[in-house]
């Protein structure tokens, strides 16, 4: 009798179009950082070939899955919220587009480049691991360097600290906050490039 009941239930599911094998709807959400810089009224550096990179991000952040803090000492990767490409790639691309708009150089070369690219000044950026503070804010730090590409002489080195939300910030808020902070970082770097362009000892622009 029990076997007959199972067959009847299965038959009704087939007739009604139900199946355990039906694909489940994909609930994944994909997020993209947004370049926010716009060309201003400052002169374009149309004789400069600017090199960007390397831009480094900790391996555990450089993924497609978005990171979630679930406790003071615990993180996990979201099963639903994702970047459209690895985070490190997005950060590098966003910085490049911001700097291109703020400086308007003759060209912007991405690391690694050929020696024949004629890069004058080089920008290197290294992001540190995220550090949640006592209030639950996600703190981040980036060290950046402007150097002469040919001689490798460092012209300026700075640290940039910022936060990208907290444990309670939804993914949309994290994306917006990170985009805004990358704009602020790009502005500081662009100002440094302009300061040192005319004082570099080498023929760092053409």
Structure explained in plain terms:
- It is built from three helices and nine strands; from the N terminus they run H-E-E-E-E-H-E-E-E-E-E-H.
- The protein has 206 residues and is an alpha/beta fold.
- The strands form two sheets. Strands 2, 5, 6, 7, 8 and 9 form a six-stranded mixed beta sheet that branches.
- The longest helix has 27 residues, at 171-197.
- 23% of the residues are buried.
- The model is unreliable at 3-11 and 201-206 (pLDDT under 50).
What brief labels describe this structure?
206 residues, alpha/beta, 6-stranded mixed beta sheet, 3-stranded mixed beta sheet, 3 helices, 9 strands, 32% strand, elongated, disordered N terminus, disordered C terminus
Quick structural gist:
The chain is of the alpha/beta class and 206 residues long. The chain has helices at 2-15, 87-103, 171-197, and strands spanning 29-31, 49-56, 65-71, 74-83, 107-110, 121-127, 131-132, 137-148, 154-166.
Report the C-alpha radius of gyration, rounded: 24 Å
Q: Judging from the principal axes of the Cα atoms, what is the shape?
A: elongated
> How much β-strand is present in the residues?
25-35%
Q: How many H/I helices?
A: 3
- Structural class from helices and strands? alpha/beta
Number of strands: 9
Order of helices and strands: HEEEEHEEEEEH
Layout: helices, strands, pairs:
Elements: H1 2-15, E1 29-31, E2 49-56, E3 65-71, E4 74-83, H2 87-103, E5 107-110, E6 121-127, E7 131-132, E8 137-148, E9 154-166, H3 171-197
Parallel strand pairs: 1-4, 2-5, 2-6
Antiparallel strand pairs: 3-4, 6-8, 7-8, 8-9
Helix pairs in contact: 2-3
């Amino acid at each position: 009798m029990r076997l007959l009941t199972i067959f009847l239930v299965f038959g009704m599911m087939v007739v009604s179009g139900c199946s355990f094998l039906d694909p489940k709807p994909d609930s994944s959400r994909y997020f993209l950082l947004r370049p926010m810089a716009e060309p201003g009224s400052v002169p374009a550096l149309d004789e400069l070939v600017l090199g960007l990179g390397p831009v480094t991000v900790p391996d555990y952040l450089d993924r497609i899955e978005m990171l979630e803090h679930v406790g003071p000492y615990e993180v996990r990767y979201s099963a639903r919220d994702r970047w459209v490409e690895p985070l490190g790639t997005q950060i590098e691309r966003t910085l490049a587009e911001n700097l291109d708009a703020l400086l308007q150089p003759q060209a912007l070369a991405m690391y690694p480049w050929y020696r024949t690219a004629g890069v004058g000044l080089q920008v290197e950026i290294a992001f540190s691991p995220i550090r949640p503070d006592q209030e639950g804010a996600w703190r981040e730090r980036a060290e950046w360097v402007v150097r002469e590409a040919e001689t490798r002489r460092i012209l300026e080195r700075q640290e940039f600290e910022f936060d990208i939300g907290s444990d309670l910030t939804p993914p949309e808020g994290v994306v917006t906050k990170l985009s805004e902070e990358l704009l602020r970082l790009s502005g500081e770097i662009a100002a440094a490039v302009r300061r040192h362009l005319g004082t570099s000892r080498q023929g760092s622009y053409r």
